Amino acid sequence: MTIISEGRTTNEAIENGLKQLRVSKDKVEIKVLENEEKRSFFSILAPRVVKVEMKLKEEKTEKKEIRPKKIIELTEEELSKAEEHVKTFLEELLPQLPEGTTYHIKRDEAGLIVELSNKNLGFLIGYRGETLYAFQNILSAIAGKGIDKKVRVILDIEGYKEKREKTLEELAEKVAKTVIRTRKPIKLEPMQAYERKIIHSKLQHNDKVQTESIGEEPNRRIVISLKKSR
């Protein structure tokens, strides 16, 4: 995107252009078209006008998180061993959980899917699923004991992840509409990589907005902004 901006001085012309583009100075290429010093005797009484051409630099947005990861396939023997490890752990844990808690373990080519059921397990989910993901990491470590390959364990509690995914998709659409209306970027709160992937995937085919992850874990977050015109 290229614009022509005007001002009484070069700096004022640049500032006016940056406000119009809603970006910082390092995001644009600047070319002075009319210098305020070049003024003739006959134009001395005319209003001073400086024109600059400003072109947005190309930016690369993050797309790593929406690429499918390579699946490490496990043998039946490895899956059986991993399932036995998790089952033994959960059987020992059940007496410590609310009465009536049940679990179900399913297999896939890369590991296990564990589902815990009991409406009183909110404390195992935690704020924004933080406790759930920590527990999931523990189960992954337990499942992979004595197995050379990485064993992936996906944990869900009372269908939390499905509900959270729907909430995040609705949030992505709502924020995208706000960005389009206000023409201003919006930063979301820090999220798990799994949750950021949901936002990226939901908006990756939107022709008006783009998503980018910024910051370092555990405070990594998504910025949703307008796509730059070419």
3D structure, described in words:
By secondary structure, the chain is an alpha+beta fold. The chain has three domains: 2-56, no CATH class; 76-158, GMP Synthetase, Chain A, domain 3 (2-Layer Sandwich); 162-226, Ribosomal Protein S8, Chain: A, domain 1 (2-Layer Sandwich). The protein is 34% helix and 23% strand. The protein is built from five helices and nine strands, in the order βαββαββαβαβαββ. The chain has helices at residues 10-21, 76-93, 130-143, 160-182, 193-203; strands at 2-7, 28-34, 50-56, 102-108, 111-117, 152-157, 186-187, 209-214, 221-226. A three-stranded antiparallel sheet has the order 1-3-2. It has a three-stranded mixed sheet with strand order 4-5-6. A three-stranded antiparallel sheet has the order 7-9-8. Strand 4 and strand 5 (111-117) form a beta hairpin. The longest helix is centred in the last third of the chain and has 23 residues, at 160-182. The radius of gyration is 27 Å and the shape is elongated. The chain starts with a strand and ends with a strand. Mean pLDDT is 85; it is low at 36-45 and 60-66.
